[in-house]
Amino acid sequence: MTWPWGNPPPIRIYNSLTRREETFPPVDAHPEVSIYVCGPTTYQFVHVGNMRNPVFYDVVRRIFKSHGYRVKFVTNFTDIDDKMIEEAKKVGESDPIQLSARFVHEYYTDLFALGVEEADFYPKVSTHIDEIIEYVKLIMDNGHGYIGKDKSVYFDIASYPDYLQLSGMKMDDLLDESRQDETADAKNDPRDFALWKAAKPGEPSWPSPWGPGRPGWHIECSVMSAKYLGPSFDIHGGGKELKFPHHENEIAQAKCGHPDEDFARIWMHNEWVVLKGGEKMAKSGESILIRDVLKKYDPEVIRLFLLSAHYRKEVEFSFEKIDELTKAKERLSETFRRLTDFLRWRAEERNENWLQIWDQVDRDYGQDDEKEGAGRIISKFDDGIRLDTDDLNPQPTDFYLVTAVREALYLAHRHFADDFDTQGAVGELFRLISRINSSLEKMSADNVHDFDAANIALGGLVHLTEILGVNKRERENLYLTEKGREQAEKGGGDAAKLADVLMKLREDARASKNFELADSIRDQLAEIGAEVRDSKDGPRIVWK
Ligand SMILES: [Zn+2]
């Protein structure tokens, strides 16, 4: 891929394994990024803190795509482990996998509400038992696993001298706690961990060469990452609490299963969402369910909150902060509306098709898997051209605005490339918004340069908000309203034609699961006297 205006800033990532920032290979040399992130054990509704990880990686994927990379993203569900079994017993559910399936469904609902793009794969343990058994056999054949006195299969940590490289812990650190473990006596060394657990009465189990049992907790991620991304891949993510034992054990299993492969080249660990006073928001302690928060707040505000700190820093949850961000988000939507109003008005004056202009802006600045547009935008803003826009007053408004957009995109992308600093980028977005607003006050309808500058400002907003995944619903709504308006004008005000178009848009909205928008279109149809009735044969219109 070529970059007509130079190169975008190379992405630098803090690698927890090497404990330093590393430059990610450029897109020309390495066009596909493979990412595996440890997902949840799905036995209850999730809290706000659980959503930091999926929302953050959603933005990481968008940042890579904005550079022109293809991204392959896998995140798992643990649907069988000790916690699942315990919780199923507690709630009187005989099958933990069924209980998990219900909460996986609930989890998807929360993910999509927060605008998280679908992963390429969401593997579950219970549907990968055969692969897990094969992998355990591989580890045993390579001399790193043994059958314990309790018929479980254990990993022999003494056989893997590189153990604990990621966490930097010492083998002696593990002794006291591991001696307390109920399986300590069954193992050669109490610090060894289970690859396969022998069945206990009343627990789900699968047949295996070692007798009936179920996978140990850690083996799933080594197996499923290898299955979907190959035994060597780019980035492995997860919360910092997973470093030990989960990620250490994943590495041990992978390196002993496939000794000639890298496994994950870069390890990323995110900090937690904390409550006031620094206490971790956790399933066991005080926590705030995302489901409850979304009843009262705009999901995109919650996204902004989760992105408002660098992922390697804690972020403190408070309703005051959410209220503040709600106001900021309103400012963003309002600016977007003002800009598009200005542009539509000017386009009409110039006899230009405003929707075509908008489509062009989306193509040039938005994110689309099939094109390289976003990279072109970034690369326009190389170091040399940075200007401090505040010094430009009193410059002509159009010049001020265009420079403000360039500066915002340049700086935001520098933050993104600096170990995915979303906090810095969100700051740039809001600085740009105030600058667009102050420009709009001064812009005039008859200045052709103002029109072009406003166009670029719209592009800048589209670009940044798409990477952060905010303002999507409003933008869609606004666009569809404009489209409806255009169609109505074309049809000479024919209400039936307009209703047909709106119905099609509503179907599209439903197909893309944007039910909020679909409902809003239904309400708009009602306003022109067209009532939508959903029937077995699909929706139809009843005129009032
Ligand atoms: Zn994992």
DSSP summary: helix tally: 18
> Tally of extended strands?
14
Please state the average pLDDT score. 87
Instruction: Give the biggest beta sheet.
Output: 4 strands, parallel
| Strand line-up in the sheet with most strands | 4-3-9-10
- Termini separation comes to 55 Å
> Bound small molecules, which ones?
zinc ion
Question: What is the CATH architecture term of the largest domain?
Answer: 3-Layer(aba) Sandwich
The oligomeric state of the chains shown is single chain
**Which stretches are poorly predicted, pLDDT < 50 over at least 5 residues?**
1-6, 369-394
**Class of the largest domain in CATH?**
Alpha Beta
| Range of helix content | 40-55%
Portion in beta strands: 5-15%
Shape field: globular
CATH topology of the largest domain: Rossmann fold
> Which structural category fits the helices and strands?
alpha/beta
Outline the secondary-structure elements.
Elements: E1 12-15, E2 20-23, E3 32-37, H1 52-66, E4 70-75, H2 82-90, H3 96-113, H4 129-141, E5 145-147, E6 153-155, H5 175-180, E7 193-198, E8 213-215, H6 219-229, E9 232-239, H7 243-257, E10 263-270, E11 273-274, H8 290-296, H9 299-306, E12 315-316, H10 319-349, H11 354-365, H12 373-379, H13 397-417, H14 422-442, H15 448-468, H16 472-490, H17 495-511, H18 515-527, E13 530-535, E14 538-543
Parallel strand pairs: 3-4, 3-9, 9-10, 11-12
Antiparallel strand pairs: 1-2, 5-6, 6-7, 7-8, 13-14
The protein binds zinc ion.
Zinc ion (ZN) binds at residues 38, 221, 246, 250.
Give a structural overview.
It is a single chain. With 544 residues, the protein is α/β, with parallel strands linked by helices. The chain folds into three domains: 30-306, Rossmann fold; 318-470, no CATH class; 478-543. The protein is built from 18 helices and 14 strands. The strands form five sheets. It has a four-stranded parallel beta sheet with strand order 4-3-9-10, with helices on both faces. Strand 9 (232-239), helix 7 (243-257) and strand 10 form a beta-alpha-beta unit. It is globular and about 85 Å long. Mean pLDDT is 87; it is low at 1-6 and 369-394. Bound molecules: zinc ion. Zinc ion binds at residues 38, 221, 246, 250. Zinc ion binds next to helix 7.
